């Protein structure tokens, strides 16, 4: 750790993910997205023990896809969803991640607990349209550890924005996934230059769990 001009600079992984200032983000782990990941058969079983272990030491935050009514959405967001899910008619997206739908449910192994923070969000960015930055700063959070789906969309977007806002962004390489394995791998490679990329075991060791 260094101090420069009154600024505290964390340098090692244990300093960066120290439990007292770290929050674990479980990004969009909905049943409907898990089913579309390239490693859907192992992803939840791999992630759930990590979340349970981290919960004993750090704040946990879940994001929930909560889209605005389509008439209030941007054309760009709707177009992006149409491309991603291979549909030509935006009306086919009308029930995507609707509240109460089976696809929006969190897998039972990853059910949020009482003290977890739940953030409903309308975009692929943790900070856009949510009060999350205020909540994190109120909690004294300096580091965000990202898990979830999809690596190359919301995780990368939010990790980059977190860094721009002064948080330390950490991406768990074996705790994130995507519908596209190649895009997932490219994203991790790109993020290694803009964030900290570490494995579950490395982060657990660093937090002392």
What does this structure look like?
It contains eight helices and eight strands, in the order ββαβααβαβαβαβαβα. It starts with a strand and ends with a helix. The protein is an alpha/beta fold and 209 residues long. The model has no long low-confidence stretch (mean pLDDT 95). The strands form two sheets. It has a six-stranded parallel beta sheet, with helices on both faces. A two-stranded antiparallel ribbon has the order 1-2. α6 runs parallel beside α7.
What's this, in brief?
By secondary structure, the protein is of the alpha/beta class.
- The share of residues in extended strands comes to 15-25%
Number of strands: 8
| Biggest sheet descriptor | 6 strands, parallel
CATH homologous superfamily identity? Isochorismatase-like
Kindly list the characteristics that best describe this protein.
Rossmann fold, 6-stranded parallel sheet, 21% strand, alpha/beta, 209 residues, two-stranded antiparallel ribbon, 8 strands
Write the layout of secondary structure elements.
Blueprint: E1 2-4, E2 7-9, H1 13-16, E3 22-27, H2 31-34, H3 43-55, E4 59-65, H4 75-85, E5 117-121, H5 132-138, E6 143-149, H6 151-164, E7 168-177, H7 181-194, E8 196-198, H8 200-207
Parallel strand pairs: 3-4, 3-6, 4-5, 6-7, 7-8
Antiparallel strand pairs: 1-2
Helix pairs in contact: 6-7
